[in-house]
Input
Amino acid sequence: MATPKAETFYWITITFSQTLGTALGDWMADSGLGYAGAALVFGAALAIVAWMYFKTEISNVALFWAAFILTRPLGATLGDFLGKPLGQGRLELSRAAATVVLLIAMVGLIYILPQRSGRHAAKKQQSEV
Output
């Protein structure tokens, strides 16, 4: 059951990640990395979070929120890279074409990296006692 404190935390996190994530992606791209370079930085950061999930005992909740927050600047920089003009070093795809490219990438990744059902950590701990 959701508590008011949990709901407040959730919505504050959503608001900050969306607003600041876009700004962070643009700032990284404008700082000299370009949109493709910034996307690589955020993609690498997400890969590190995934590595930490499998190789460390860091809280899965903390890792989830880290990954959640990093997806916004990654999406913003990838979207800008696909849609901005060629003269600015981008691909200048239409919105429809960029959407199709991203959709194909998402479906491909879901197919390549399927999720497996598992047990919730709290239930797992109860059954081990």
Remarks:
- The two ends are 24 Å apart (CA to CA).
